[in-house]
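Title: Comparing notes on inverse folding

I've been comparing how different people in this forum approach sequence design from structure. To keep things fair, I'm posting one structure and asking everyone to reply with a full sequence. Here's the target:
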């Protein structure tokens, strides 16, 4: 997906500002191997109906700073892996990076063993 600047020029601007359907489908095709989605019909037919409650919350300042640092570190590792091994062989580092970012977004203590950390999600709950 390239650097942040090239990703923005290649995908973000065309998709968000120009509503470029080709770029949207190309991005979807590129990230599809890293997305796993199973529908209820495919897994178990006897499960009850899902109940969802969507609550939007902001990361705390400390959490947002940690997320940005992790994102930059992960981006560097992924780009190095892609340049050395190619995109197809970098799947594990990409999935690992996405998991790590998700952990920081949920609560930084999932990665860092420190008592003084807070989470926007936990504050909302």
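Reply #1:
Here's my take.
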């Amino acid at each position: 997906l390239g650097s942040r600047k090239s990703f923005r020029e290649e995908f973000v601007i065309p998709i968000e500002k120009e509503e470029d359907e080709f770029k949207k489908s190309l991005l979807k095709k590129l990230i599809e191997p890293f997305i796993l989605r199973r529908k209820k019909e495919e897994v178990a037919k006897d499960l009850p109906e899902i109940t969802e409650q969507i609550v939007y919350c902001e990361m705390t300042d400390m959490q947002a700073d940690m997320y940005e640092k992790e994102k930059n570190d992960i981006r560097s590792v992924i780009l190095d892996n892609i340049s050395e091994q190619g995109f197809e062989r970098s799947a594990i580092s990409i999935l690992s990076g996405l998991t790590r970012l998700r952990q920081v977004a949920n609560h930084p203590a999932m990665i860092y063993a420190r008592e003084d950390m807070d989470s926007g999600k936990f504050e909302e709950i």
